[in-house]
């Protein structure tokens, strides 16, 4: 199993590290445009192999896509992160060009690959990859909901005073500060609805804290988060590589599902060796349907900025 990660920065290197430590991939290629950067990150990570007990071979390359040839999975993290006070959508002017060039270069050398898009604004970047590459829709996956759901569970556990392992919940919709749809109605504490434990006001606070989870960390860190994003990507990569048939909310091209067409937005999908094995349509409440519709309007507005 060969995995390429483009962008050896904070998220890309974390993603590569978690993939290596999970030891399910034979090879991870880190590629960056910054001279020597990916090579340095790869060497540093390989020097943890004996300490962290993995056999995964991590190599780094500067902007030479021949080294990525025949990758089973390619992760795109290349692009700039936001600064405090910015929205993800404000990154489109720089990141769209990067993602377009990178995705084309990847499929030139790995025409059968599955692409996972991380760069922001992620839903729009995922849509751009569809338009740029023409890959089958089951082989283009945007990572956002898996991260947002992890933050949702963190906030739920905090509110419940419960261990995170007791909590389950999912966030669908756009990966944006205003467009996320945390499904508090369905969230559980060890199979019991969280609404049995938490008031509506407290659950609304959990929702709002989840939606700005990224911005909260950007304000603290001065740049985007990277540990949880890297871990979320590694979970998607593992589900595909190991044909786990696990369900994650991912940004996926919808063609009628949830009443939406010609848009990439967070929805529950089953991930396996073919990438998106199935888009899962869950019954939403009227309020959730309205939030999903509102979220899609925000994503479409950003898509409209693309020079397709
Ligand atoms: N979808 C999500 O949930 C999520 C989570 C975290 C970060 N992000 C996004 O991921 C992106 C990366 O974030 P980061 O914190 O790792 O940033 P970073 O600046 O640490 O790393 C980005 C790397 O991309 C490289 N790069 C830039 N242009 C390139 C190109 N044309 N080819 C190859 N490499 C190139 C840079 O040299 C840099 O090393 C940002 O857009 C950020 O907003 C998304
Ligand atoms: O919020 C960001 O800028 C990065 C990423 O989308 C995140 O949610 O951490």
UniProtKB/TrEMBL annotation:
<feature type="binding site">
    <location>
        <position position="88"/>
    </location>
    <ligand>
        <name>substrate</name>
    </ligand>
</feature>
<feature type="binding site">
    <location>
        <begin position="118"/>
        <end position="120"/>
    </location>
    <ligand>
        <name>NAD(+)</name>
    </ligand>
</feature>
<keyword id="KW-0560">Oxidoreductase</keyword>
<dbReference type="InterPro" id="IPR001557">
    <property type="entry name" value="L-lactate/malate_DH"/>
</dbReference>
<dbReference type="GO" id="GO:0006099">
    <property type="term" value="P:tricarboxylic acid cycle"/>
</dbReference>
<dbReference type="Pfam" id="PF00056">
    <property type="entry name" value="Ldh_1_N"/>
</dbReference>
<dbReference type="Pfam" id="PF02866">
    <property type="entry name" value="Ldh_1_C"/>
</dbReference>
<dbReference type="InterPro" id="IPR015955">
    <property type="entry name" value="Lactate_DH/Glyco_Ohase_4_C"/>
</dbReference>
<feature type="binding site">
    <location>
        <begin position="7"/>
        <end position="12"/>
    </location>
    <ligand>
        <name>NAD(+)</name>
    </ligand>
</feature>
<feature type="domain" description="Lactate/malate dehydrogenase N-terminal">
    <location>
        <begin position="1"/>
        <end position="142"/>
    </location>
</feature>
<feature type="binding site">
    <location>
        <position position="151"/>
    </location>
    <ligand>
        <name>substrate</name>
    </ligand>
</feature>
<comment type="function">
    <text>Catalyzes the reversible oxidation of malate to oxaloacetate.</text>
</comment>
<feature type="binding site">
    <location>
        <position position="120"/>
    </location>
    <ligand>
        <name>substrate</name>
    </ligand>
</feature>
<comment type="similarity">
    <text>Belongs to the LDH/MDH superfamily. MDH type 3 family.</text>
</comment>
<keyword id="KW-0816">Tricarboxylic acid cycle</keyword>
<dbReference type="GO" id="GO:0030060">
    <property type="term" value="F:L-malate dehydrogenase (NAD+) activity"/>
</dbReference>
<dbReference type="InterPro" id="IPR001236">
    <property type="entry name" value="Lactate/malate_DH_N"/>
</dbReference>
<dbReference type="GO" id="GO:0004459">
    <property type="term" value="F:L-lactate dehydrogenase (NAD+) activity"/>
</dbReference>
<feature type="binding site">
    <location>
        <position position="82"/>
    </location>
    <ligand>
        <name>substrate</name>
    </ligand>
</feature>
<protein>
    <recommendedName>
        <fullName>Malate dehydrogenase</fullName>
        <ecNumber>1.1.1.37</ecNumber>
    </recommendedName>
</protein>
<feature type="domain" description="Lactate/malate dehydrogenase C-terminal">
    <location>
        <begin position="147"/>
        <end position="298"/>
    </location>
</feature>
<dbReference type="InterPro" id="IPR011275">
    <property type="entry name" value="Malate_DH_type3"/>
</dbReference>
<feature type="binding site">
    <location>
        <position position="95"/>
    </location>
    <ligand>
        <name>NAD(+)</name>
    </ligand>
</feature>
<feature type="binding site">
    <location>
        <position position="32"/>
    </location>
    <ligand>
        <name>NAD(+)</name>
    </ligand>
</feature>
<dbReference type="GO" id="GO:0006089">
    <property type="term" value="P:lactate metabolic process"/>
</dbReference>
<dbReference type="InterPro" id="IPR022383">
    <property type="entry name" value="Lactate/malate_DH_C"/>
</dbReference>
<feature type="active site" description="Proton acceptor">
    <location>
        <position position="175"/>
    </location>
</feature>
<keyword id="KW-0520">NAD</keyword>
<dbReference type="InterPro" id="IPR036291">
    <property type="entry name" value="NAD(P)-bd_dom_sf"/>
</dbReference>
